[in-house]
Amino acid sequence: MDVVSDASLLRASPPVVLPRSWSFDLRGADGRERRIMVAAPAAPPPPGGYPAIYLLDGHALFGMARDIAALFAIRAEVSGIDNGLVVGVGYPSEETFDGTARTLDFTAPELAPSTPARPDGKPWPSTGGAVSFLDFLANDLVPLLEREWSASPERRTLFGHSLGGLFVVDALFRRPAAFRSHVAASPSLWFPREQPRPPAGLGRALGGLPPRDLVILAGALEEPSGETSHDPARAERQRRNRILGNARDLVAGLDGLAPNLRASLVVVPEENHASMLPAAVGRAVRLAFASP
After folding, report:
1. Does 76 reside within a domain?
2. What is the CATH number of the domain that holds 264?
């Protein structure tokens, strides 16, 4: 490796490349393109294929999840974590969080008429594309990963944060067979004026499936606390959004719906809406890749 002593040479040096990782754009039946990132282990797939975790907001979360999965795999016999595929779903804009694209993809059409005002008073981007986005995941992306990267059809995990977490809950309600595990980090259950409720018939649909998991994670500081005592506007948003309260209500409402649905809430100490993401991604990878 050459030693760089000149700043101009440093800036001209090649970018870091993540080993065994790929990126490509995939056009869905809705005509829109998403940027897909895939990290695959060097070890051959187990019988039945690799477990796979699909992360929304891929540009923000893919690298973190890839590294966590690789660290777990170093001592798999201790961690009890299998090798697996890490899949990030982002957008060709390459923005860390593409506000316009994610708002459209992560919100259900039924919610659009009741969308509350944004905290900054600006109008929301277009909403209501969740059905098309779920079709893209289930009909376009998942079959590709299972065909080209030997992903297991029985060990799929979906992860989303904030509006992405709202989408994860909606995906479970709308198409419970699509993913085995659903991890919703700080889900924006406040987005519709009426909290999402399980649709009629969900219990019957779940009854014919293998066990399904819904894990909701939220930071303890997402409720008004000493951290927000100096910021009344932020404390008021937290009271209005009820991240923790809505999550507790949702998990309680799912209790007993179906014997094979395991719904739980994990409160992450000392973390807020953004800072709890590393802990949430770590738990999601552990759930997705845990040895059967």
Report:
1. yes
2. 3.40.50.1820
Contact call for residues 36 and 141 (beta carbons, < 8 A): yes
**Tokens linked to 33:** 């393109």
Give the DSSP H/E element, type plus range, for residue 275: none
Domain residue limits at 98? 23-289
Cα three-residue angle 24-27-33, rounded to 5 degrees: 75
CA distance 67 to 55: 14
Determine how β-strand 151-161 pairs with β-strand 85-90.
unpaired
Which position among 59, 181, 222, 223 bears the catalytic label? 222
Instruction: Check if 110 is active-site.
Output: no
* CA terminus-to-terminus distance, the chain: 42
Contact present, 35 and 95 (Cβ < 8 Å): no
Q: Domain for residue 229, yes or no?
A: yes
- Please identify which residue in the block is written with the tokens 């993401």: 277
**Do residues 82 and 76 make contact, with C-beta atoms less than 8 angstroms apart?**
yes
Half-sphere exposure of 198 (CA within 13 A, CB side): 22
- The reply to whether 161 belongs to the active site is no
Who wins on pLDDT, 116 or 236? Answer: 236
110-152 confidence digits (pLDDT tens): 765 566 667 677 788 888 899 999 999 999 999 999 999 999 9
Neighbouring CB atoms inside 10 A of 177's CB total: 12
Selected catalytic residue, list 162, 181, 186, 188: 162
Task: Quick: pLDDT tens for 201-219.
Answer: 899 999 889 999 999 999 9
To the query of whether residue 270 is one of the catalytic residues in this protein, the response is no
Judge whether 125 lies within some domain. Answer: yes
